[in-house]
Design goal:
6 helices; eight-stranded mixed beta sheet; globular
């Protein structure tokens, strides 16, 4: 029982799988170079994914998630596209392409690729699903009552989990949480961290039951 997640610094997405006894691999350039293991057992791969997945250490996976950086693709930043130049666009599309190339190596493994509303819908194909973290706040007792429009591309039998908001209290979720994060070197990681409620919901919908 083995799962993997690309462009994943926190490991939030795979934490439910780890807790259930799966072997969990997370890939990101921010991890220590090479292969190391966190105290909780999460296996870290410190690699540059901009050139694509050149090799993997295993021949089967039960689930794949990917979170390619969206800096130069998100439509919320469209007004800065021209100033960033074509190389910036090339880099971001390359990150997304690395994810597609990785999941193509496992044609029977359910996968999901996450991005905000972005130019990928134009350059590749429209997203299969959209959600906000508050849609899954019921899995974490309402702790994630905020909005952040998130798009999911998926395949190979991936099951999008049913939404579960935390009661009437969050009928008007916080629309400022993401935008009002304090400046600092961790701001990007905080803004891009996978919602734990969504991670738990995806696990429950896609885990192997045999």
């Amino acid at each position: 029982m083995r799962v993997a997640s690309l462009f994943d610094y926190t490991g939030n997405m795979l934490q439910p799988w780890l807790d259930a006894g799966y072997e969990c691999h997370i890939y990101d350039h921010q991890h220590p170079k090479g292969i190391t293991r966190r105290d909780d057992g999460m296996i870290l791969h410190g690699v540059d994914l901009s050139v694509g997945p050149t090799s993997v250490e295993y021949d089967d996976l039960d689930f794949i998630s990917c979170f390619p950086p969206c800096d130069n693709l998100s439509v919320s930043g469209a007004r800065w596209f021209k100033g960033k130049g074509l190389r910036a666009l090339e880099i971001s599309i390359g990150f997304f392409a690395s994810c597609i190339e990785f999941v193509d190596m496992f044609p029977e493994t359910p996968y999901m690729i996450e991005n905000p509303r972005s130019m990928i819908s134009t350059y590749w194909r429209p997203a299969d699903e959209t959600f906000n973290p508050c849609d899954y706040s019921g899995y974490v007792d309402g702790a994630e009552d905020y909005t952040k429009e998130t798009h999911i591309w998926h395949g190979n039998g991936f099951k999008m989990p049913s939404r579960n908001r935390y009661g009437d209290l969050f009928s008007h979720p916080d629309q400022t949480y993401i935008h009002h994060q304090s400046p600092g070197k961790e701001r990007k990681n905080i803004r891009s961290a996978t919602p734990k409620g969504f991670a738990q919901a995806v696990f429950e919908a896609n885990r192997r039951t045999v």
